[in-house]
Amino acid sequence: MHEFSMMMSIVELVKSEMEKRPVIKVTEINLEVGDLTFLSHDALQFGFQALVETEPRIGPDSLKIIPVPAEVKCSDCGFSGAMKFADSEANHLMTPVFQCPECAGPVEIVRGKECTVRNIRMELED
Ligand SMILES: [Zn+2]
User: Fold this and answer.
1) How many CB atoms lie within 10 A of CB 22?
2) d(CA 82, CA 68)
3) DSSP character for 92?
């Protein structure tokens, strides 16, 4: 399960941050998850809860997932903005289109592939 291994490295990161200061409790972990990662938010939450079970200082409900919409930049016409998605009739899933919505030129992905911790809120000892 891709989400679980992803979550493992995130929990590791949170724990290494906790080692640097006298933490009483981690109250909020803001995780940015790009639309193009195709990670299931439910599976991320599930993996997180399983991983923090043995760490009472991390609240099981502290993970906040912030979805990041896909954004592209065109090298031909300079367009930059939301990525085009096509509604595939076969499976009713939105498929990203790697083409400029303006000129159909090749695009570079600017946002939407990240799975990164934006910030962590902690309660510290006085
Ligand atoms: Zn273009």
Assistant:
1) 10
2) 11
3) -
Domain total in the chain: 2
**Model confidence band, residue 94 (pLDDT cutoffs 50, 70, 90):** confident
C-alpha to C-alpha distances, 45 to 31, 65, 118, nearest whole angstrom: 11, 9, 16
Write down the pTM of the prediction. Answer: 0.86
Neighbours of 36 (CB within 10 A): 18
Q: Which residues hold their Cβ within 5 A of ligand 1, which is an ion?
A: 74, 76-77, 79, 100, 102-103, 105
* Contacts of 123 by beta carbon, 8 Å cutoff, 6+ apart: 23, 24, 25, 26, 27
For 10, the domain range is 2-69+111-124
> Alpha-carbon distance 104 to 119, whole Å?
37
CA of 11 from ligand 1 middle (Å) equals: 39
Same domain, 16 and 52: yes
Same domain, yes or no: 36 and 80: no
For 9-43, the pLDDT digits (tens) are 999 999 999 999 999 999 999 999 999 999 999 99
